[in-house]
Amino acid sequence: MDIYLMLKAIIMGLVEGATEFIPVSSTGHLIIAGEWLNFLDKDKRDVFEIMIQLGAVLAVCVEFRQRLLHTVQRIQTDPNAQHLVRNLFIAFLPAAILGLAFHHEIKEYLFSSFTVGIALIVGGILILLIEKFVPAGKVQDIDHISAKQALQIGFAQSLALIPGVSRSGATILGGMCFGLGRQTATEFSFFLALPIMFAATGYDLLKARDLLSLDDAFIFLIGFVTAFLSALVVIRALIKFVGQHSFAVFAWYRIVFGILILLFFAR
């Protein structure tokens, strides 16, 4: 086994786990990291990224296992469980429909370093504006999110189809714009990651099934486990962070990183 290939797989897994649930765009970082590391050929790298995204979303299942288990067990009798599932379905629909409709065009025309750099900068500026001008949301519990707010968050999530926007950033900041408290928006973003990421990775795996090979299984496993463990750490840290801080630090990171990307790849 090539030790350098293993190290690259670990780095890619760390990048995915570290960035999937904070508003800096995991897809954008994976595009940059993959190009910088020259990791696998493009087709296999795409499949690898699908697998490590599954590792990251599994971390959400583990961290919120009690709430998820409670929801599944009591879906037929508990109004709060029914309310959550309904809202997740509503919020899931816009990105799912648009993603299916424009999947090929997005992959073909938007997956580039230039797109990522621009999206990072624009997203960072929007975060600063939202933090400064949007009043604190009144909804402090995900059980109190309305169907209208869920749909609005779903359309906000659709912006993350553009590489560099950040799914978590779009849903969290979108939630804050539509009346959710910071903590509530963050928690709902975690839950919303489950249907959209399982659906997206399942669809991509189905399309790329001919590229799956036992020869790559060990490298894929390394990335999967690394992404799972690092995502679990980040989820727990982010839950604590949002209770005491704004997202301004992520905004400035996005702006600086976006500028560096444009300068580097413009050479």
TrEMBL record:
Enzyme class: hydrolase
Compartments, as annotated in UniProt: Cell membrane
TM helices/strands, residue ranges: 84-103, 109-130, 218-239, 245-266
Key word Membrane present: yes
GO-annotated molecular function: undecaprenyl-diphosphatase activity
Domain of life: Bacteria
Documented EC number(s): 3.6.1.27
Reaction catalysed by this enzyme: di-trans,octa-cis-undecaprenyl diphosphate + H2O = di-trans,octa-cis-undecaprenyl phosphate + phosphate + H(+)
Membrane topology type: Multi-pass membrane protein
InterPro entries listed in its UniProt record: UppP
Keywords: Antibiotic resistance, Cell membrane, Cell shape, Cell wall biogenesis/degradation, Hydrolase, Membrane, Peptidoglycan synthesis, Transmembrane, Transmembrane helix
Function as written in the Swiss-Prot or TrEMBL entry: Catalyzes the dephosphorylation of undecaprenyl diphosphate (UPP). Confers resistance to bacitracin.
More details: Bacitracin is thought to be involved in the inhibition of peptidoglycan synthesis by sequestering undecaprenyl diphosphate, thereby reducing the pool of lipid carrier available.
Family: Belongs to the UppP family.
Protein's UniProt name: Undecaprenyl-diphosphatase
Species of origin: Methylophilus flavus
